Amino acid sequence: MTALLEITSLTAGYGAAPVLHEVDLSVGEGQIVAVLGANGAGKTTLLRAISNTLPVTAGSTRFDGIDLKSVKVERMVRHGIAHVPEGRGVVTELTVEENLRLGGLWRKEKPKLDEVYELFPALANRRSHLGHQLSGGERQMLAIGRALVAKPRLLLLDEPSLGLAPKITALIMGLLRDLRDRTGLSVLLVEQNVRSALSIADEGVVLNLGRVAARQKAGTLADDADLRHAYLGF
């Protein structure tokens, strides 16, 4: 499988303290890769390093052959990368529809919001509601929907199930799997809900103290009891 995202010997952190140490990782076209590990393992740091919201100390991050270290944060989406950070970062003072339109600002053509409303009918029913009037699940749908308006090739998704009811988590995971199958979207998914993540992922990468402890096919990783007990807590 052709690698769309290729990370080699990536070292990054905050100030003088590295969090990631020589991480190697790749995401292929139309592939979901789940990044797993305990709190503090470096999962969120990895996504921030890829999207250049955190300086990279050493190593390389390449997307479709482009060196991402030379790409400004605000231009990432133009290259086909959308980052949905932990915390459902919607603009609470704007309506659902206004938030979605933000995702398509850089595109020349008019954003196709109806496609998002088809994916998330709950948002269609609340399109005129302000962000602060939405439930946690609706905010997560909105954050993902806004990213999808930009028509990314790669979606960086940080803890989408955090604080959500199991039913909403299942809906979001099913949507990601469907988008991969129908559109070829690639996803790098950081997730604490290991079972949910591995149920839709093609591969799983386990981080431990900023290093890759294991990388296996998702089904193999789910069946590896010793590794799960050692690094994932179940």
Structural description of this entry:
The chain is an alpha/beta fold and 234 residues long. The chain has a domain at 87-151. Helices cover 34% and strands 28% of the residues. The protein has nine helices and ten strands. It has helices at residues 43-50, 96-103, 113-119, 121-124, 136-149, 166-183, 194-200, 218-223, 225-232; strands spanning 3-14, 17-28, 32-36, 56-63, 66-67, 81-84, 154-158, 186-190, 203-208, 211-217. A six-stranded mixed sheet has the order 6-7-8-3-9-10, with helices on both faces. It is globular. The mean pLDDT is 92.
Précis, in short:
The chain has helices at 43-50, 96-103, 113-119, 121-124, 136-149, 166-183, 194-200, 218-223, 225-232; strands at 3-14, 17-28, 32-36, 56-63, 66-67, 81-84, 154-158, 186-190, 203-208, 211-217. With 234 residues, the protein is an alpha/beta fold.
